[in-house]
Specification:
Number of domains: 1
Radius of gyration: 31 Å
Length: 106
Amino acid sequence: MDDEKLDILLGEALAPPEGPADRGFVLRVERAVAEEERYRKWRAAFVRQLVTEAAALAALGGSFALVARVPAVEAALTETPGLIWAALVLLLLVWALMRGRGNVLA
């Protein structure tokens, strides 16, 4: 049997049956494609939000570091190291408010 006859034989044997498409299969594939698209959009929005929040937190942290280099503030921080924790809590509160959450503990 030569290659051309084998290709024809295999094509006939493996061809899908004639008739209407399996509606259930088509619906499952369409749902899967729609869900994948929805997940891709959600993931892109999540990454965008993550980058934005990281940049905002870096800016706030940098501003706190810059303010901490002011001689009067630096002296206050060396005398009372607990102020650093208060500044970190303030940073956390600002971040929580940036996210639009009124209740931080929720």
